[in-house]
Write a structure and sequence with these properties.
The complex is a heterodimer of chains A (250) and B (263). With 250 residues, chain A is an alpha/beta fold. Chain A has helices at residues 43-50, 73-80, 98-108, 114-127, 143-155, 173-190, 201-207, 225-229, 234-241, and strands at residues 3-14, 17-28, 32-37, 58-63, 66-67, 83-86, 161-165, 193-197, 210-215, 218-224. Chain B has one domain (5-257). Chain B is built from nine helices and no strands. The longest helix of chain B is centred in the middle third of the chain and has 40 residues, at 139-178. The chains are: A alpha/beta (250), B mainly alpha (263). The interface between A and B is medium-sized, with 20 and 14 residues.
Chain lengths: 250, 263
């Protein structure tokens, strides 16, 4: 069980607000690790630490053997190019159509020509079930389609790690199922690693190999789905049952 | 609100220095990219159209009426005192040196500077800027540099057109209200100002172009607080740009025309 990324005793604070405190988390290579927790707990911040968009106040972040806290900005940029990132609301560029959105990393980072870009974009869109949507603009797409275009853009460079920020939030159960299926399919096809931030239990139960629960700035439980389900931690149990009664303050 | 007034002054000073430093860093980074020719050509042309070409009508309209009002104010008086042949010089002098560059910049700051701040601000709150960074792309190269190069190309062009329209408007009005014929007016223009006046006016526009784009971009990129924040950034962009344009116009006039006032 190789570890591809690790947050080691990480603390992150903005002014007087501590978001993460002495947090340690391993990301297993080739697996889907889901980070769960309450809204505003700092789950998305963990993803931004993993691709160097945020720097910890203290502690270290290792990705593929490199300590991100020691990298220069240029080295961080190079590392980010090998990590896919799917944003909560996809963050597609409004002024570009679907084709240009997905093609952007190939065009700007890999400097490929249109002959090479076109088949790769077509394949990526086909993988997420959006073949034929190339000419549409983000404003013309449904919420589920926008998210899948975001997935296509995240995987277009064949990254070893893909980070998904709340991929199913705001989707109906059918689209949630479709998006979750797509994440599982992409991980399998690329033989890579996925880290998914979510509080959507239906989705987590479908795809997670490992689950980490974030509570009050720290990982309070980590394990396989079965281990988490049988956890005796009352916070984990309350969260998994979606109960109002328990130690989690509402 | 701080209890101690000194604390408030200190905080505002820190904020001002932070702002100036932020704009300077943005300008430095943009200059470095331009010097290394890391310019997205197609996007630059696109921005030249959006920021420059689409601003021509309002720039020309304001210049036309500015030229006409200078002519109106000066023509009747000048004819009365027997200096009708100098009206063309007065209009051209004011247009080439001051009003052409400055009014074009103010109008473009109101339209294009606001558009830059609003667009980049919207991109911040919809995570598009962060998405660029996550893809390993520089928002400065992708967004700021094309707008800066486009503005550096388009503002001088708009100013030349504004100068011409201002003089034509002035000539027409002088003819209508003071019966100064067009030949007299245009001869006066040629005698009153030279190509160096126009060129020095155009140097000003390059500085104004940098102000408009850097302030608009910086305001946009530091947007916080959602949709309300976009409004704040946009308003701030216009206000700060216009104030800076007025201040730098004075300084540039002093530097470029110092010792040569009145020809």
């Amino acid at each position: 069980m190789a570890v591809i990324a690790r947050l080691d005793d990480v603390t992150l604070a903005y002014a007087e607000r501590v978001v993460l405190q002495n947090l340690t988390l391993d990301v297993v290579e080739g697996a889907i690790t889901c980070i769960v927790g309450l809204s505003g707990a700092g789950k998305s911040t963990i993803l931004r630490l993993l691709n160097g968009l945020r720097k910890p106040s203290s502690g270290r972040v290792f990705v593929k053997g490199q300590d991100l806290t020691q990298l220069t900005e240029r080295e961080l940029v190079n590392l980010r190019r090998s990590i896919g990132f799917s944003f909560q609301f996809a963050a597609l560029f409004d002024s570009m159509n679907v084709y240009d959105n997905v093609a952007l990393p190939l065009r700007e980072n890999m400097h490929l020509g249109d002959d090479e870009i076109r088949p790769r974009v077509h394949e990526a869109l086909e993988t997420v079930g959006l073949a034929g949507a190339e000419e549409k603009y983000p404003a013309e797409l449904s919420g589920g389609m926008v998210k899948r275009v975001g997935f296509a853009r995240a995987i277009i460079t064949n990254p070893e790690i893909v980070l998904y920020d709340e991929p199913t939030t705001g989707s109906d159960p059918i689209i949630t199922h479709l998006l979750t299926d797509t994440i599982m399919h992409l991980r399998k096809k690329m033989n890579g690693t996925a880290v998914v931030v979510s509080h959507d239990l239906q989705s987590i139960f479908m795809m997670a190999d490992y689950v980490a629960m974030l509570f009050e700035g720290a990982i309070i439980a980590y394990g396989t789905l079965a281990e988490m389900r049988s956890s005796i931690n009352p916070i984990v149990q309350q969260f998994l049952q979606g109960s109002e009664v328990g130690p989690i303050p509402i | 609100m701080p209890a101690n007034p000194l604390e408030g002054v200190g905080r505002e000073t820190t904020d001002l220095l932070e702002y100036v430093g932020g704009v300077a860093i943005l300008g430095g980074e943009s200059a470095k990219l331009i010097a290394r020719l890391r310019i997205r050509v197609a996007e630059t042309f696109n921005q030249a159209y959006l920021l420059g070409v689409q601003s021509w009508s309002i720039v020309l309209l304001t210049s036309l009426f500015t030229g006409m009002v200078i002519s109106l104010e000066s023509a009747v008086q000048a004819v009365q005192y027997g200096f009708g042949s100098l009206v063309g010089s007065a209009v051209a002098f004011a247009s080439f040196r001051e009003l052409g560059p400055m009014l074009s910049a103010v109008v473009v700051a109101g339209r294009a500077g606001a558009a830059i701040a609003a667009e980049l601000g919207s991109m911040v709150i919809t995570e598009q800027i962060e998405a660029l960074e996550a893809l390993g792309l520089s928002p400065v190269r992708m967004l700021v540099v094309p707008r800066l190069v486009a503005m550096l190309l388009m503002l001088p062009v708009l100013t030349i057109l504004a100068d011409i329209v201002s003089i034509l408007g002035g000539a027409w009005l002088a003819n209508q209200v003071a019966h100064i014929d067009y030949d007299t007016f245009l001869t006066s223009v040629r005698q009153g100002v030279g190509i160096s006046d126009m060129l020095r006016g155009l140097i000003k526009t390059l500085v104004f172009a940098v102000i408009i784009v850097l302030i608009g971009s910086y305001q946009g990129l530091r947007t916080r607080l959602g949709a309300a924040g976009v409004g704040i950034s946009t308003t701030g962009s216009v206000v700060i740009s216009i104030i800076l344009i007025f201040i730098t116009n004075f300084l540039l006039s002093y530097i470029l025309f110092g010792g040569n006032f009145g020809g």
